[in-house]
Design brief:
With 317 residues, the chain is α/β, with parallel strands linked by helices. It folds into three domains: 81 residues, Winged helix-like DNA-binding domain superfamily/Winged helix DNA-binding domain (Arc Repressor Mutant, subunit A, Orthogonal Bundle), CATH 1.10.10.10; 119 residues, D-Maltodextrin-Binding Protein, domain 2 (3-Layer(aba) Sandwich), CATH 3.40.190.10; 94 residues, 3-Layer(aba) Sandwich (D-Maltodextrin-Binding Protein, domain 2), CATH 3.40.190.290. Helix content is 36%, strand content 22%. It is built from ten helices and 15 strands. It is elongated, with a radius of gyration of 23 Å. The relative contact order is 0.15. InterPro entries: LysR-type_TF_proteobact-type (IPR058163), LysR_HTH_N (IPR000847), LysR_subst-bd (IPR005119), WH-like_DNA-bd_sf (IPR036388), WH_DNA-bd_sf (IPR036390). This is LysR family transcriptional regulator. It comes from Mesorhizobium erdmanii. Keywords: DNA-binding, Transcription, Transcription regulation. GO terms for molecular function: DNA binding; DNA-binding transcription factor activity.
Length: 317
């Protein structure tokens, strides 16, 4: 039997929790996927999956096998890349998880990448909370602020820029806040990211202020916050990606320019330093796209671009 192919099939079944979904991803029939997993179980002399009519779950042995299978496949992919066997063609699917504003920003720019690599497929996943990369079969994930899991590789690629904004209609008859302390006199719209969002942080460069907000409106979706702000529901802190065009058009007013919202690092996390060419191509594209936006990249705070496999990729703290 082809152990590498069987391990690849087992990994995809474990990630998708479905023989049929794995078959679709691997361009195989469902019986072929089932046969490969059964053959692997026979080869290893242990059951890796519990199968029932309505459910599929890893056995304890399967749970232990999962990270080992991933390491074997990463080593095989790295060997192929080193030998030049795969370097000429970037092919396959890459699952990329991003916060919604950055996902919109990247989606607007993906056409060039896909045109350069006709055999590459990209699946964008809009998600603000950290994912289990291996369990959810995610190749790359963008996280704002601390990267989290120290077992992951981490690369900082830029910094967020956000604005405190409100619509002209909301501000009519109300005084615009000039300092963070003035915000308590206003209705606020909070974006509840990753279970929080009730605190706003501002920085003048010399002083930092963190305010606890009692919002009139809260939402776990940044697009909903954006639309409510345009409709005049109150003040909101919005990414420049969402707010920038509206500020330029006069639909939103940028407030407290001398005390803007604090910036957060933009980190990309991934399971291993050894990445196949398809993932490297998407990461390189992501880095370049962010650094071409002057409000996300700063030569004063960001290191010069380096290849992904050099010291710029480190285990997350």
């Amino acid at each position: 039997m082809d152990v590498v192919s069987a391990l690849r099939t087992f990994l995809r079944v474990a990630q998708t929790k479905s023989f049929s979904a794995a078959a679709l991803d691997l361009n195989l029939t469902q019986p072929a996927v089932s046969r490969q997993v059964s053959a692997l179980e026979s080869h290893l002399k242990t059951r890796l999956l519990h199968r029932t009519t309505n459910a599929l779950a890893l056995t304890a042995e399967g749970e232990r096998m999962l990270p080992m299978a991933l390491r074997v496949l990463e080593a095989v992919d790295a060997l192929g890349e080193a030998s030049g066997a795969e370097a000429a063609t970037v092919s396959g699917k890459v699952r990329l998880s991003l916060p919604t504003p950055l996902g919109l920003f990247i989606g607007d720019r993906l056409a060039g990448l896909l045109e350069s690599h006709p055999a590459l497929d990209v699946e964008l996943i809009f998600r603000d909370e950290p994912s289990d990369l291996i369990a959810n079969a995610i190749d790359l994930e963008v996280r704002l602020g601390p990267a989290g899991d120290s077992s992951l590789m981490c690369r900082r690629i830029g910094w967020t820029t956000a604005f405190l904004v409100a619509s002209p209609g909301y501000l009519e008859g109300r005084g615009a806040p000039r300092t963070p302390q003035d915000i308590k006199d206003h209705s606020c719209i909070c974006y509840s990211r990753a279970g929080d969002g009730r605190s706003w942080s501002f920085s003048s460069g010399a002083d930092d202020v963190v305010l606890r907000i009692e919002p009139r409106l809260a939402a776990n979706n940044s697009m909903a916050v954006h639309r409510a702000t345009l409709a005049g529901a109150g003040l909101a802190v919005l990414s420049h990606i969402l707010a920038g065009p509206d500020i330029e058009a006069g639909r939103l007013v940028k407030l407290m320019p001398d005390f803007p919202p604090a910036r957060l690092p933009i980190n990309v996390v991934y399971p291993s330093r050894n990445m196949p060419p398809r993932v490297t191509a998407v990461l390189d594209f992501l880095v370049q796209a962010v650094r071409e936006d002057v409000l996300m990249a700063s030569s004063a705070t960001l290191p010069a671009a380096r290849p992904v496999n050099e010291a710029s990729a480190e285990p997350c703290a």
